[in-house]
Amino acid sequence: MLARTKGEESKRKLLQTAEELFAKKGFQSTKISEIVANAGLTQAAFYLYFKSKEDIFQQLLQDFDQQLMELSDVGKKVVELSPTDVKSYVTDMFVKLFTLLGKNPNLTRIALQHATESDRIRKKIVEQIANNMSNNQRLGIVKKEIDTWMAAESIVAITERLIHRYLLTGEKTEKELGEQVAQMFLDGILNHSKSGD
Question: Which one of 84, 104, 134, 143 has the minimum C-beta count within 10 Å?
Answer without folding.
Answer: 84
